[in-house]
Amino acid sequence: MDFDGSLNGSTGVFARQFERIGRAVELGLASGRVISVSFPESAPADADADHPLLDRIGAYLEDEPDDFSDVQVALTLSTDRRRVLEATRKIPYGETATVSQIVQLSGLDSDDPEDVELVKDALEENPTPLFVPDHRVEARTATPEDVAETLRAIER
Asked: What residues form DSSP beta bridges with 14?
């Protein structure tokens, strides 16, 4: 499936139910960038189900490899948390990382409890799971655990 990385200025809320995860994926887009991702039990009635990014997610959930690295995300977070999520985004498809590895990839000190806590907090508050693939980190993250398990199984 061709995708140029931009969402052509798309703005709005888009959601679709996906049987493979037993939930919906809801996307918030602003000016062609993903600003939020959530996994509600069902798609909101007022959300548009027609979007090429939802098509890509559907293909991914049906075992078509996609690392979503070309999708533009807008991370409006503090610099240190953004650095953590940018490091998380670099974990390759099909691989996993520990919190300690993310601490190091973020340029932080894995021996500093405050740095480790910063990484854990950033992962739990990740506004764009799937596109910042926190399911690839061995920790509690913004992706619900049942969804994270399915995503890891897809990527094996």
From this structure: 27, 48
Amino acid letter for position 130: L
On the question of pLDDT at 6 being above 70, the answer is no
Amino acid type, 80:
D
Q: Tokens representing 89? A: 């985004």
Helix (H, G, I), strand (E, B) or coil at 152: helix
Domain 79-154 has CATH 2.60.40.420: no
Cβ–Cβ under 8 Å, residues 54 and 21: no
Q: How many angstroms separate the CA atoms of 104 and 153, rounded?
A: 26
3-state secondary structure of 43: coil
Asked if residues 103 and 110 have their Cβ atoms less than 8 Å apart, the reply is: yes
- Among residues 31, 20, 10, which one has the least CA distance to residue 60? 20
Q: How does pLDDT run across 57-85, given as a tens digit for each residue?
A: 999 999 999 999 999 999 988 999 999 99
